[in-house]
């Protein structure tokens, strides 16, 4: 009974000391709005530990991949600080799970089982959070790739009807209303940029950088290379690109369908065995009689 009490006390006291002495240094980071980050007020000690350990230097590949994913989900600005916040959130969960395990050992009289269980869950949760972040980024990229050919077709029709490229894009964005879609969200930011004085080229380059999708980069490059010429050459270039993007959209849709089918395998097998048991059990019972 002494070990859980010692571990819980050490975790609590060390967090309080670090929060009082080092926490105020990182209090300004609470202003960053990140969906899914719930324990900002508890991050101070863990941010201090991340800085002290120099996690970016010791785990450069992992931190680079996480920062790249954070940039896509939460924007390019302050992506380094947001990455540290996400890491601090993971450490907070680990600390809470370990503390809960110690409490369970004290209250439930489970010996070291509660501590071990809390430690296992505390290690598993950060891995699950990283996996969930990468899955969200993949879904975002797929949503952009699926919607891009539709956007391109609308731009081709509007430019062919005599609209300028800028007005065609603005019309496409306006036609979506308040629809929450990653591609149109980034286009709205681009529209705000060029309304605030940025040139069309600068705003579109920033749009491409924020999206971080190869197909969007090809789209923006094609537009920037051809929009000054206009007319038939511009429409022809966009139509050629549209054909390529529709093929990629088909490939993405096919891959998503295969993933959905694979997820149904286990429920189907479970249902099959349930039916076998329901049908076979009465037969075996009759044979035993």
TrEMBL record:
Membrane topology: Multi-pass membrane protein
Keywords tagged on the record: Cell membrane, Membrane, Transmembrane, Transmembrane helix
Protein name from the UniProt record: Type II secretion system protein GspF domain-containing protein
Positions of the Type II secretion system protein GspF domain: 152-280
Organism: Paenibacillus silvae
Pfam families xref list: T2SSF
Keyword Transmembrane attributed: yes
Subcellular location(s) of the protein: Cell membrane
InterPro entries xrefs: T2SS_GspF_dom (IPR018076)
TM helices/strands, residue ranges: 83-106, 112-130, 264-285
Main location: membrane
